[in-house]
Amino acid sequence: MNNLNHIAIIMDGNGRWAKKRGLPRSMGHKKGVEKVREIAIYANKLGIKCLTLYAFSTENWKRPEKEVNYLMSLPKIFFNKYLKELMKNNIKVTMIGDLNKIPLEAKNIFKDAIRQTSKNTGMILNFALNYGGQSEIVRACKQFAKDYKDGKIKTLNEKTFNNYLYTKDLPELDLMIRTSNEERISNFLLYQVAYSELVFVDTYWPDFTCTDLDKAIETYMNRNRRFGAVDEK
Ligand code: V0D
User: Fold this and answer.
1) pLDDT score at 1
2) Is 12 tagged catalytic?
3) Which numbered atom of ligand 1 lies nearest the CA of 205?
4) How far apart are CA 178 and CA 9, in angstroms?
5) pLDDT recorded at residue 58
6) Domain for residue 148, yes or no?
7) Do 185 and 193 contact (CB within 8 A), yes or no?
8) Considering 35, 73, 105, 171, which has the largest number of Cβ atoms within 10 A of its Cβ?
9) 56 CB-contact burial (10 Å; exposed 0-12 / middle 13-18 / buried 19+)
10) How many CB atoms lie within 10 A of CB 195?
11) Is the pTM of this model over 0.85?
């Protein structure tokens, strides 16, 4: 079908989607949650091994309190509505990021979904929560240094460093998509994006469709075909 193992998406544009329609930002987020379900089910059907979604960045805490509170209620809305369906589709939920600062209720909702789906063998639906790429790298360096000092690890190189990242058990990142016409990485998967293809689409996340995902995959495959057998990596 395709040789895509791992896709990451920066789900941007919920607020702008709502503003364009004269709706409160929360309506954009609500619609965004439905898109998570739709795209996850579809990506699993395509045979993608892992889909990482940037749901809540370390920057999001700076938003108005009312909006942050609403965002914190989304995990409950999402899993109450869709966990059954994720199970039926054999999807396994995981999360990466600094979970210390995540409110207990939201954290427990995720933990429960992770536990319930832990034996599923289909696509990994990986949520990046309170995630920051630079902080992930610094955290990894600290542990790397400690293990070196303790003699637990002898070789320091790109490959062994990988074992200290949140993503250590996930397949290599092939494609990163960002919606809503922004062309920045914004501190997402900085180490992992080294050899990925980047696809930027102008669609707001609530308007993103399965066809948009198809197109992004098509772009990825066309770029890879162009390099053909002479893979630089
Ligand atoms: C919907 C991006 C924050 C578009 C932003 C799993 C998709 C809004 C969270 C979140 C969602 C908040 C606290 C927490 C974990 C996650 C979130 C979901 C969707 C559903 F502990 N935004 N957000 N969770 N969206």
Assistant:
1) 58
2) yes
3) 4
4) 6
5) 81
6) no
7) yes
8) 35
9) buried
10) 11
11) yes
Rg (CA), the chain: 18
User: How many Å apart are CA 13 and CA 9, to the nearest integer?
Assistant: 12
Q: Is 212 a catalytic residue?
A: no
Please give the distance, rounded to the nearest whole angstrom, from the Cα atom of residue 75 to the centre of ligand 1: 6
pLDDT for position 3: 81
pLDDT averaged over 10-residue windows placed end to end, the chain, 233 residues: 89 96 96 98 98 89 92 96 98 95 93 98 97 97 97 95 98 98 96 97 98 98 74 53
> 2, 5, 12, 162: which is the annotated catalytic residue?
12
- Note whether residue 111 is domain-resident: yes
- Does 182 fall in a domain? yes
The whole-number pLDDT of residue 227 equals 64
Residue 37: CATH number of its domain: 3.40.1180.10
Q: Is residue 36 part of a domain?
A: yes
The atom number, within ligand 1, closest to the CA of 107 reads 21
Residue 56 C-alpha to ligand 1 middle, in angstroms? 6
Q: Which atom of ligand 1 is nearest to the CA of 103?
A: 21
The boundaries of the domain holding residue 79 are: 6-132+173-221
